[in-house]
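Incident log, structure service

09:12 report received: a user says their structure output differs between two submissions of the same chain.
09:20 pulled the input from the user's history:
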Amino acid sequence: MIYKPQYFSIRELICPHAVEKFGEFAWSFLDDRAVMLLDIIRRKIDKPITVNNYETGGEFSQRGFRCNQCQLVRDKTSAGVVYCSPHLRGIAFDFDVAGMRAEEVRQWLIAHKDLLPMPIRLEKDVNWVHLDIAPVFTLEKVTLINP
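09:34 re-ran on a clean worker, output below:
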């Protein structure tokens, strides 16, 4: 089953290369659990969340699912760097919440961790929110990771 979110369009969550090539089938590149989690956070925090905004002329196009044609991935590959980001697996999103700083959002997520249906990882010390559902080796609901 492919979960289609209430609050986000396909272009907000998937890079333009994959959307252009695969259209609606690109939804299948995202893990349903991650998309449902993003919807839950949007509903509970009750503020707009921006992942990708390229469709409306914004600068963000690689903050959800990234394919091998995304510049960030291409740069890592050409530099010989092993790049296994959860963005490539459809289980990560970078985002901003309207009217909140990234650290405020992280603290909100930590304070409301009981609303989360699964453990999450959050990057610390960055000026955006990176959230993923990559496996963790702890029983904690929220794990802070280094970028």
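09:41 both user submissions now match this output. Likely a transient worker issue. Closing.
09:42 reviewer note: Helices lie at 10-13, 16-22, 32-45, 71-78, 102-111. Residues 10-145 form a domain with the Muramoyl-pentapeptide Carboxypeptidase; domain 2 fold (CATH 3.30.1380).
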